[in-house]
Design goal:
Layout: E1 4-10, H1 14-25, E2 30-33, E3 45-46, E4 55-56, H2 63-66, E5 83-84, E6 88-93, E7 99-103, H3 106-112, H4 117-129, H5 131-138, H6 149-159, H7 163-170, H8 174-184, H9 197-206, E8 214-215, H10 219-232, E9 236-238, E10 251-257, H11 261-267, H12 274-282, E11 288-296, E12 310-315, H13 319-330, E13 340-343, E14 358-366, H14 375-385, E15 393-399, H15 401-407, E16 444-446, H16 460-471
Parallel strand pairs: 1-2, 1-10, 2-9, 6-12, 10-16
Antiparallel strand pairs: 3-4, 5-8, 6-7, 11-14, 11-15, 12-13, 13-14
Helix pairs in contact: 1-10, 1-16, 3-4, 4-9, 6-9, 7-8, 8-9, 8-13, 11-12
Length: about 475
């Protein structure tokens, strides 16, 4: 490692690597420091159950990564990245062997929803037609004036409604309502909250545009491609390098933290104004995840065979059941019948498991730092829609919120969303700030999931933080 750099990036997750690439592309010298021995942050993979079974440690399905304006402009395929996009983006099993499927094809999805076909098309047609503009707006800081204000106004007005109200007023069938609710549940918010429909609209539209794909070989493949490209243009990466104080850094003109505000406030406390340290300490973290990696003897035996056409499965039942689960979680109670997000990569990617074997990745939402063991409740929900699932389990590895945080220091209390989405924080992260990447010190920036545009493997927070550094400290 050299004695000095134009910039130092703390954290080698997708946002940290995106920040470093942005700086290196602009001709700046940059080094990325990572506390863990393995780079990737929320985009890592490992054999956590049995040899040969590859599981993603955090994020597993990447519609935002595939649609990221920054990632899509990089030659990552030249560095080994291959996206796998199933014909169905999301499957949502229901009672009595039924299922709602969000096929990549909008028409097929609508037709299968029967009497809700017209309503489903009407809900997503305009968003799909203008997907590039939707992405341009949602992947930038939301204080920027939109390129197409009327389109964004329509999205804002439709998305302002609580998801429960929107689903009941827009759709007549339980299948369409449940499908929409499953998208919304990614928000980590009760479905009765204002603006939760926005998540259903944007994620629902993504199912019929970029699709819900994932990197062949695991999330680590995306990380490795980003790292390889960074190094090919002169950037450096150092693992096993924990930063506890700014004095731990080599000389630099700018520091970009791909961490939570709490970590920035602690590490840079001596060089931050008091008001900055205060809001960083007060930054709110959201609900947590309880996760299980499964090694399986065979594919999950879904009661409805169409569920096997999607890598992503929303296991939660009806709109009412999902709303109840997320309300319990938000109230500090471990859900009785949790909404489970499940990924079955090995149906589409034979690098994930030994020949003839399979993997499953599943998690549910729980209160922050919850100690309740959700293993049986998660397994029961899967078994409910896939009788015989328990008999396929060869091995499993559970991850409590505390274990998730121990694996990745950004997951405070097991929170996988980079902070709470309540109130204005659903749009304005880390707070009501015109430029969210500034910290109060003109040489220190924050570019993590705790800043706009928020959670997801898309790299845009790091990219925008680096652009801000280039426009100010690194001019």
């Amino acid at each position: 490692m050299a004695d000095s750099y134009d910039a130092v990036v703390i954290g080698a997750g997708p946002n940290g690597l995106a920040a470093a690439i942005t700086l290196a592309q602009a001709g700046r010298s940059v080094v990325v420091l990572e506390a863990n021995e393995t780079i990737g942050g929320g985009a890592r993979s490992a054999e956590t159950t049995e040899p040969g079974f590859v599981h993603d440690l955090a994020s597993a399905i990447h519609p935002l990564g595939m649609g990221s304006p920054f990632f899509s402009g990089l030659p990552l395929h030249e560095h080994g990245l291959e996206w796998i996009v199933p014909v169905a983006s999301v499957a949502h099993p229901l009672n009595n062997g039924e299922a709602a499927i969000a096929w990549h094809d909008l028409h097929q999805t609508a037709v299968e929803l029967g009497e809700d076909a017209a309503a489903y098309r009407k809900t997503f047609d305009r968003l799909i037609e203008n997907w590039d503009d939707v992405t341009d707006f949602t992947m930038t800081r939301l204080t920027r004036f939109p390129r197409h204000p009327m389109l964004m106004l329509r999205l804002g007005l439709a998305g302002a409604a609580p998801a429960t109200r929107f689903a009941k007023s827009r759709f007549a069938t339980e299948a369409a309502r449940a499908l929409f609710a499953g998208h919304v549940a990614h928000s980590l918010l009760p479905l009765s909250y204002p603006f939760t429909s926005t998540f259903g609209l944007v994620l629902g539209a993504s199912a019929h545009t970029v699709g819900w794909g994932f990197p062949k070989g695991g999330a680590q493949s995306l990380t490795n491609a980003l790292a390889a490209y960074l190094e090919s243009i002169g950037g450096e990466i150092r693992t096993g390098t924990r930063v506890q104080n700014l004095s731990d850094l080599p000389d630099h003109r700018a520091a970009i933290f791909s961490t939570t505000p709490a970590q920035v406030g602690e590490i840079a406390r001596e060089r931050l104004p008091q008001h900055s340290r205060l809001w960083m300490r007060r930054f709110k973290y959201g609900p947590a995840a309880f996760k299980i990696d499964f090694a399986l003897s065979e594919p999950i035996p879904w009661a409805n065979p169409n569920v096997a056409h999607a890598a992503t499965v929303h296991v939660g039942g009806t709109l009412k059941e999902i709303a109840t689960s997320e309300k319990q979680m938000s109230s500090g109670v471990p859900p009785t019948k949790p909404f489970v997000l499940l990924a079955q990569h090995s149906l589409f990617d034979d690098t994930r498991a030994p020949q003839g074997k399979h993997t499953a990745w599943a998690y549910c939402h729980v209160p922050n730092a919850s100690r309740f063991d959700m293993t049986q409740r998660i397994q029961h929900q899967i078994e409910r829609f896939a009788p015989g699932f328990r008999d396929t389990i060869i091995a499993k590895r559970t991850w409590s919120p505390a274990e998730l945080e121990a694996s990745n220091a950004n997951l405070i209390g097991g929170n996988v969303g980079g902070g709470s989405n309540r109130g204005s924080r659903v749009f304005l992260r880390p707070g009501i700030k015109i430029i969210p990447y500034r910290t109060g010190n003109p040489t220190i920036f924050i570019g993590s999931a705790s800043t706009s545009p928020g959670a997801g493997v898309h790299g845009m927070s790091g990219h925008h933080a680096a652009r801000e550094a280039l426009a100010t400290a690194l001019r």
